């Protein structure tokens, strides 16, 4: 019965994803790319230190730079400009061909795949195939410093795209198709993780696609409907405020309120605050190993809003006879911030379940 419920959620979610594709059935194809020397960072993004990522455990590899293999490519995931998915892959040249575990890394809002390079190099040094992409309207898929915000407003106005989370999840399913075909990747050992927006991408991609065998969403898991019901939506709304301001005007409101928030979610990510919210999608990742890393004081991912999905997931993993494969760590005193401790916990989790 539980498997049937999980299958229905996945089927319904895939139907929503397909509903706004220009052509969902384009053949998967690969184009060669080149290294990006000046990545696009949007908005008022302040590029913080990479010390947190640089703290990731690494293996001392002799002649690391000489042995490092960098691949830049594009996957065609659907018709149209945004259907060209930029992919960066790092790995270490091996003396003999062998299939290795892979981990997909997903950046936060307004950043790009290149920002994650310290993590990619650290995992590559430890024998992983390290993969990163530009999410929709980010990095190589952005033409200006307002591309992502403009796409969100357009989605509200026209209802023809889903730039917040869902369109990138479609890309991640297609990325899964590609990774499964590679001769250097163990198809049973593909992990996925990300920070903030990337954490949401990892969560939903793993819920939708069981080929992602291990998942570690970092400062991404939250309860969207819970936030509306408990007047805790402000911090999340502020992170992409322009679309809510536009909706407020269109709805004849003087200020953003919970009705505006609900209508925006329903328009730009149908089901995000209902049947695909965390109480329903976090548990269906079972029995695959899942580690949720949040800050205990995170206003965008309030810990109280994770209580229901957490308790349901605990039950799901118990029923699957693998309670040890699910864990939530809420770091005390930490807000919406990825920490060195989180990077280490994620690394240990992947080593435990993918190596």
TrEMBL record:
GO molecular-function terms, A-Z: serine-type peptidase activity
Domain spans labelled Peptidase S9 prolyl oligopeptidase catalytic: 123-338
InterPro entries to which the protein is assigned, alphabetical: AB_hydrolase_fold (IPR029058), Peptidase_S9_cat (IPR001375)
Pfam families, per database record: Peptidase_S9 (PF00326)
Membrane-crossing residue ranges in chain numbering: none
GO biological-process terms attached to the record: proteolysis
Coiled-coil blocks: none
UniProt protein name: Esterase YitV
Lineage, opening ranks: Eukaryota, Viridiplantae, Streptophyta, Embryophyta, Tracheophyta
């Amino acid at each position: 019965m539980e498997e049937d419920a999980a299958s229905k959620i996945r089927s319904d979610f895939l139907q929503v994803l397909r509903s706004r594709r220009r052509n969902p059935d384009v053949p998967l194809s690969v184009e060669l790319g080149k290294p990006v020397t000046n990545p696009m960072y949007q908005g008022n993004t302040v590029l913080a230190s990479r010390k947190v990522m640089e703290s990731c455990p690494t293996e001392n590899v002799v002649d690391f730079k000489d042995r490092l293999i960098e691949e830049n490519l594009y996957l065609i995931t659907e018709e149209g400009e945004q259907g060209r998915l930029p992919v960066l892959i790092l790995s270490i040249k091996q003396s003999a061909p062998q299939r290795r575990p892979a981990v997909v890394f997903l950046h936060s809002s307004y950043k790009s795949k290149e920002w994650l390079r310290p993590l990619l190099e650290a995992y590559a040094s430890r024998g992983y195939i390290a993969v990163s992409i530009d999410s929709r309207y980010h990095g190589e898929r952005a033409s200006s410093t307002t591309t992502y915000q403009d796409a969100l407003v357009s989605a509200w106005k026209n209802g023809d795209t889903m730039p917040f989370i869902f369109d990138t999840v479609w890309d991640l399913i297609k990325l899964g198709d590609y990774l499964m075909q590679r001769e250097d990747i163990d198809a049973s050992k593909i992990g996925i993780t990300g920070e903030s927006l990337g954490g949401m991408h990892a969560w939903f991609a793993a819920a939708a696609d069981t080929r992602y065998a291990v998942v570690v969403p970092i400062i991404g898991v939250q309860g969207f409907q819970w936030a509306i019901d408990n007047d805790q939506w402000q911090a999340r709304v502020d992170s992409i405020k322009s679309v809510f301001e536009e909706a407020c005007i269109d709805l004849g409101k003087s200020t953003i309120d919970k009705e505006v928030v609900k209508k925006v979610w329903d328009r730009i990510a149908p089901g995000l605050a209902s049947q695909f919210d965390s109480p329903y999608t976090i548990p269906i990742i079972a029995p695959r190993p899942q580690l949720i890393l949040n800050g205990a004081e995170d206003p965008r991912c309030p810990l109280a809003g994770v209580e229901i999905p957490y308790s349901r997931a605990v039950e799901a993993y118990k029923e699957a006879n693998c309670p040890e494969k699910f864990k939530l760590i809420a770091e005390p005193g930490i807000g919406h911030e990825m920490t060195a401790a989180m990077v280490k916990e994620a690394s240990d989790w992947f080593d435990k379940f993918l190596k």
